[in-house]
Amino acid sequence: MFKQFHNIETAFRHVRLFTFVLIAACMSIVCFTILESYRMVTKAQERIYILASGKALEALAGERKDNIPVEARDHIKMFHFYFFQLDPDDKLIASHIGQALYLSDASAKKQFDNLSESGYYTGIISGNISQMVTMDSIVLGIDTYPFRFKYFGKQQIIRPTAILTRNLITEGFLRSVSRSDVNPHGFLIERWKIIDNHDLEIKNR
């Protein structure tokens, strides 16, 4: 009878040990599954899909600090495109200037007001003049904040009878702001000014 009790106690210990081992194994599997799922979700969130020409292209997201030079240069490039790329259409001019002013502070608004008061935009419309800008390079200093930049480009003024090419050099500073639909890069151009805009050549059409 005592032997039978001894066997029952031994069997109980074995069952209890087996239960503990089984619980530990299950807990390990659950923890591994949670960690692996978290890793996969984190990796999936780093993927960005861009729709171009009806095709989904995959891109990888990175830290903002890694993309500052690229985003800053594109912000500067787009600001100059909107401010200087004009056609004899008052709605297009208003649209482009409006988008440029979203990317900059009052210094660009002051430049726009000066050009408006001098009849510059009225002359574009009445003279059927188109204006194009081509970027040559951008010098950007990211060692100090706000970031100082200098823009080098060419400005073409296309008249019905001639094409005037001007040098275009501007400078200013970049400050970080919140991203939005009208300011996707999250920068604001400050203390912007045109430092050179002299004529380079004129060609008759």
Number of helices: 5
Mean pLDDT: 86
* Helix-strand makeup class: alpha+beta
* Proportion of residues in helical segments: 40-55%
Largest sheet: 5 strands, antiparallel
CATH architecture of the largest domain: Roll
Written account of the structure:
By secondary structure, this protein is an alpha+beta fold. It folds into 2 domains: 2-47; 63-204, VirB8 protein (Nuclear Transport Factor 2, Chain: A), CATH 3.10.450. It has helices spanning 2-45, 64-84, 90-102, 106-117, 120-126; strands at residues 47-52, 55-60, 130-141, 147-158, 162-176, 187-196, 199-204. Strands 3, 4, 5, 6 and 7 form a 5-stranded antiparallel sheet that branches. A two-stranded antiparallel sheet has the order 1-2. Helix 2 (64-84) runs antiparallel to helix 3.
Task: Provide key terms for this protein.
2 domains; 5 helices; 205 residues; rod-shaped; Nuclear Transport Factor 2, Chain: A; 5-stranded antiparallel β-sheet; alpha+beta
Quick structural overview:
With 205 residues, the protein is of the alpha+beta class. It has five helices and seven strands; from the N terminus they run H-E-E-H-H-H-H-E-E-E-E-E. Strand 4 (147-158) and strand 5 (162-176) form a beta hairpin.
